[in-house]
Amino acid sequence: MTLMTVLSVSLILFSVIDIIGSLPVLISMRNQGVVLNAPTATATAGLLMIAFLFFGVAILGLFHLDVASFAMAGALIIFFIGLEMIMGIRFFRHDLNDGGSGSIVPVAFPILAGAGTLTTIISLKTEFDTASIFGGIMLNLLLIYFILRHVDWIASKMGNQLIATLRKIFGIILIAIAFQMFKDHLLS
Questions:
Q1: Selection from 140, 36, 25, 164 nearest residue 91 by Cα
Q2: Are 35 and 101 in contact (CB under 8 A)?
Q3: What is the DSSP letter of 182?
Q4: How far apart are CA 125 and CA 130, in angstroms?
Q5: Which one, of 164, 148, 136, lies nearest residue 12 by Cα?
Q6: What percent of the chain has pLDDT over 70?
Q7: Could you tell me if 3 and 10 are in contact, meaning their C-beta atoms sit under 8 angstroms apart?
C-alpha cells in the first residue's frame, strides 16, 4: 500500500460516489424536511462499503443475486430519485413523526453507497490491495461526513435559484446514469 495507490482508489471512489454531484439531492431533501444525520449516514455508508470490500460477492450470493441484478435494482432507485428532482413528485416517503429520516435510505444507500459504489469496490479488488481500497474508502467517508455536516451552510452560499437549477440538471443526470447502469447490466 502506497500513498499514490490510496489516492488512486480514493479518486475512483470519489467519482463514483459523487458526493459533490449529490449536493442538489441532499439540499432538496433538507428543504422537504428530511432529517440528514451526518454521523448516521456516514457510518451506514461506511459499513456498507467495508462489508462489500470484504464480503460483497458472498453477501449477494446469500440472496442468490449476481452483481448485475444488484446494479439494476440500484439503477431503478436512482431513476426514481432523478424523477423526484425533475418533476417534484415524491416517491420516497419519510414519516418524520415516527423519527424517520433520510439518513439511511436514500442517503447512505443508494446515494452514497449505492449499487455503483458497491460494485466498484468489488471490481477494485482485482486491481488494488485491500488496504489501499480500505484507505480510499476512509478518505471518502471523511469528505462525505464534512459535506453532510455542512449541507445547510453550502446551501446558504449557493442561493435558491442555483439550487433549483442544479436540482433539475442533476435529476436528468441521475436518470441518464440509471439508464446507463441498466443498459450496461442488462446486456452483460
A1: 25
A2: yes
A3: H
A4: 7
A5: 136
A6: 94
A7: no
DSSP H helical ranges for 101-159: 115-124, 130-149, 151-158
For the chain, counts of helices (H) and of strands (E): 8, 0
- Tell me the domain boundaries of the chain: 3-186
Largest CA distance in the chain: 48
Contact assessment for residue 173 and residue 77, using Cβ atoms and an 8 Å cutoff: no
pTM above 0.70, yes or no: yes
Kind and range of the H or E element at 29? Answer: helix 23-31
pLDDT score at 98: 45
State the chain's mean pLDDT as an integer.
Answer: 85
Residue 93 has pLDDT above 70, yes or no: no
Q: State how far the Cα of 12 lies from the Cα of 81, in Å rounded to an integer.
A: 23
CA–CA separation, 188 vs 182, rounded Å? 10
* Residue 26: Cβ within 10 Å count: 22
